[in-house]
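[stage:ingest] chain + small molecule (acetyl coenzyme *A)
[stage:ingest] validated
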Amino acid sequence: MEFIETVKGKAREEQMRIVLPEGTEERTLKAADRLISEGIARVILLGNPEEIHHLASEYYLENIGAAEIVDPLDNPKAGEYAALMVRLRSHKGVTEPIALELLKDPLYLGAVMVKAGDADGEVAGADNATGDVLRPALQYVKTAPGVNVISGSFIMNIPDTMFGDHGMMIFADCAVHPNPSATELAEIAVSTGRTARAIVGMEPRIAMLSFSTKGSAKHEMVDKVVEATRLAREIDPTLEIDGELQADAAIVPGIGAKKAPGSNIAGKANVLVFPSLDVGNIAYKLVQRMAKATAVGPILQGMAAPVNDLSRGCSVEDIVSLAAITACQAQAAKRERKL
Ligand code: ACO
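[stage:predict] done
[stage:export] tokens:
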């Protein structure tokens, strides 16, 4: 996909340190080898060094020697990280012994390395459920200033180029927040608009989706989307956003013109914001399978530093792509910190 090649190119411009907690997982190790050989990122692998080197030779991987390896069970920085964890979460009952125990879990260690600034971003999930990847990041990396809700978007490349920008669209939230309030949905829309600009280089036209278009149905679920649309416009007036719209009114010009005349978004949306995780997750998987779209993500939005979660069915290429996206998010976060 052309978009991913552009992202990889951006990532190469300033190599970021990406921690891969599943350091002994076959696809992760193969992806690490490619990230190093293609100059996309500096790689930190978590796991037993002997096992990692043994597996690397078994898979004929020649570049793993250039990765930094941190052993969660023999980590010289464990004490320092535990102190940081206690500082951040003593109010939640985290004590030094608890922190030291948590740090033996590579998913906690990875998140804390990001928080400590020893890694610029993290990619995990080839071998772990979404919740287990996200929880340490939500607890320790936390949200970016001014953001309260983390969500997950997918960049969808749809073979039928009549949709979005020549087939390119962004869907959210498809991965994180099960039942957002109107305020949270507004934040998800704004974060997704920013992802569109920062990662895809796309000027977002955001449709807030519902089963109703401009009052065609009355229900509290519709009211939520209407209110979220109003709030999102308030949070970021630079974004083009409209709702509530049904999916067909959002993406098919003829239907958009009929159901929502005068809308600047109807019929030409390139960002779809779903009213709940149920809808978003189901929709992206259906489009991926039935329309044979490529789905890149989920890209976590709103985190203080990038942490991204893979699907357990991911390929080596998926890991390389998500690591490149994570590196670009880390570059953007670094630029923002300098402002
Ligand atoms: N944004 C910001 N912070 C959050 C969010 C969010 N969306 N969700 C939880 N948090 C924070 C909480 O405030 C809490 O902080 P605190 O401990 O400092 O008070 C911390 O994260 C833990 O929150 P819990 O609700 O206790 O965490 P829990 O583990 O129950 O849930 C999780 C969080 C894992 C994200 C959960 O909402 C979840 O499982 N979501 C669905 C994930 C999923 O299965 N997605 C579908 C599959 S993905 C795919 O198909 C690609």
